[in-house]
Amino acid sequence: MVLNTLGAYCGSAYISNFNQYGKVYRVMAGAAPEYRLDPNSLNNIFVRIGDEMAPIAQFVTLTPAVGSATQKRFNLYQSIACSVQPNAGYSEGDVQRVIAEVAKDHLPTGYAYEYGGMSRELEENSKSNLTALIYLVCVFLIYMILASLYESFFIPLAVLLSVPFGLMGSFALSWLCGQQNNIYLQTGVIMLIGLLAKTAILITEFAVEKRKQGMGIVEAALSACDDRLRPILMTVVTMIAGMIPLIIEGGAGANGNRALAIGVTGGMAVGTLALVFVVPAFYVIFQKLHERFQGPMTPEANQAAVEEVSENSNAENPMTHNHNKATTLLVLCVLSLSTLLPSCGIFKKYEPVAKPEADSLVTTVSEADWKSYITDPALQNLIEKALANNVDYRSSQLAVREADARLRAAKLGFLPTLAITPAHVGVSGTVTPNGGGTSDAILSYHVPLTLNWGGEGFGTITNRKRQAEVLREQAEDNRAAMHANLVATVARIYTQLQLLDYQATILDSTEVIWQRVLEVQRVLVKNGQAYSPSVGQMEASLLNVLLQRKQIMQEIHSLELAMCRLLNEEPRAINRSPWSSNVFSTWPLEPIPAAQLSNRADVRAAERNVAAAYYQTNMAKAAFCPALSLSGLIGWTNNGGLVADPGQLLMNAVLGLTQPIFAGGKLKANLNIAKIAQEEAANRYVETMLRAGNEVNDAMFRCRNAQEQDAIYQRLLATQQEAYNGTCELMRKGKAAYIEVLIAQENYLKVQLADVTNKYNGMIGLIDLYVALGGGTK
């Protein structure tokens, strides 16, 4: 009522609608601005209390507070958003490295930082080192294309090694002019690489043609430079002349145009001068290496090859053979790269969620073994039997072994499959209606040995192996959780049995007291000092005690049966120590770091589930990538001929590449399903973390509350003891009746029973805290 009234007056409340002139208006009730300006305005706001009205100030107290108007959160944690702008001359990558160093040195324990937007993408790309891999792959592809063009593995190096000389001129002129290495300069460098490579390719191509015509290596290089010098100079002058207006112009976009033009001008000027001298030198070196390993490229060699072809029509031309080899190698490399490049992202390992670091000086029950935590020998014996015989716990151990087997199979996924399938076929003689036919049986046999490798992409196999590793760890976490729960369950039942034994002892003492009270009351009635109905009340109290005693014995029997089921044994009495509050080691109930929650098996299992879903998503992505397969067959058969000895050796090899194109939308649907499952697993992980924190807080509160109540109960026990002793003293002096002594003794026993129950609740809280913090499964 108070909240609704205050919200309506200060923030307005929706009441109803009304129509006017064909339009619908909303009615909002609220106090006028002048009646809600200061705290004194609360005295003018009344709420109904029964049949009267009371000012709301009697129920609300205003306290000035200073804080943020909004609370920003990131992944359900309180966060602070910071914007960082790099200084002139520094890139965003430099800023991220500085932030990482500062956070490592100065960020307090339990705090972390994350990037958002494009900065997050930049950080992930820098961690994956994908840029360097792409550059290497591009250079390799260009090299293979040039190798196919020149029919040589050495001559393309003359082109590739000459390009960096032009890049030195580009960066040198940009540095002299005070330009930064920005995106405009890098765009010009890309264009410059193409132009310089074209010049080097043309010089090398002309030199190769001259060499094939019989010219010497040095003469061919010089002749190629002489023939291509004029078009090269024309290209350079034209390009530089086109860049000059971009250098001197102003206005919008002038800085970007100037950076691009200066880089291209310096690279073209210096690179062209360098290429005219460097490319011929490199060509001479690598042409000699080429001819040393593959033979000379002279007309005499070509004529000898032609004569060899005329002698053997099945022989191939050496140049054609070299060309086919280079082309085949290029095709294989392109196919391999087409298999690997699309799947670069699916080889990335799962990165666990960043957790706050725990203080190394803090020691909690999550780090203690159950034997050091539980000190009762009888309870330790029962727990060991339960761990050895419990069916559910043994099933969890078998699940770990099953996960180990699956992991071993997944690790062998990269190996080929080998199979032998011998076969024997016999055809008996046949007779035709005309009396002809065959009389001898035809027997054939073959013994093939089949080898298959591939069929699935490397991304699928790798992620399946990593998923199997995660599932194995998850099975181990489930076993650890079962271990902790089994230890806690046995401890709970054992502690409850001890409590019931102690309660039965107290009830036995109470029964003796009530029997004495009943006898005294009967004597008082007989002597006329009490009324007869009081005897019935006393007898009813005694019968109630006897009934409670029977109920406790029934509970003890049920708990012993439950313990026997956990131990996987026949029903029997459970041996246990007398009641004591020293069953468990005492641990300081201090604030526990949040990182201790990661010791819980269910938290680890939830994170393993996120990792497994992540690898499942990667496998769904890998289904879009090509799959390389290799299969071979070798064997022996007797069905190889009809005249001579038919036995012969069979050999076959097949290399294939499968690229999915259209699968009825199944691949995309599987990917979407995997992504949704990954998001759901992440949500479950967050929920598990929150539930773990709540369980720890609840167990800590119950333990502390039991400690505080124990101090009160000790004072109450002392008070009841003094009351009982005082009553006994009064009875000896003849100032109190014996029944008063019995009543004081009964009250003392009731307080003892309540004190034991409180200690039991504290022990159960310690057990729950032990489980909530991981149960020694770190």
Describe this structure in words.
β5 (73-74) and β6 (77-78) form a beta hairpin. The chain is α+β, with helices and mostly antiparallel strands. Strands 7, 8, 9, 10 and 11 form a five-stranded antiparallel sheet that branches. The protein has a two-stranded antiparallel ribbon with strand order 1-2. The chain has 19 helices and eleven strands. The chain has three domains: 2-58, Multidrug efflux transporter AcrB TolC docking domain, DN and DC subdomains, CATH 3.30.2090.10; 155-319, Multidrug efflux transporter AcrB transmembrane domain (Multidrug efflux transporter AcrB transmembrane fold, Up-down Bundle); 367-428 and 441-583 and 601-772, Outer membrane efflux proteins (OEP). It has helices at residues 2-11, 92-106, 118-128, 130-150, 156-160, 163-176, 183-212, 217-248, 254-294, 299-311, 318-340, 370-373, 377-389, 391-411, 458-526, 533-567, 601-622, 666-732, 738-772, and strands spanning 13-20, 23-29, 46-49, 52-55, 73-74, 77-78, 417-420, 423-427, 442-454, 627-637, 648-658.
Provide the descriptors you would attach to this structure in a database record.
778 residues, alpha+beta, Multidrug efflux transporter AcrB TolC docking domain, DN and DC subdomains, Outer membrane efflux proteins (OEP), two-stranded antiparallel ribbon, 11 strands, elongated
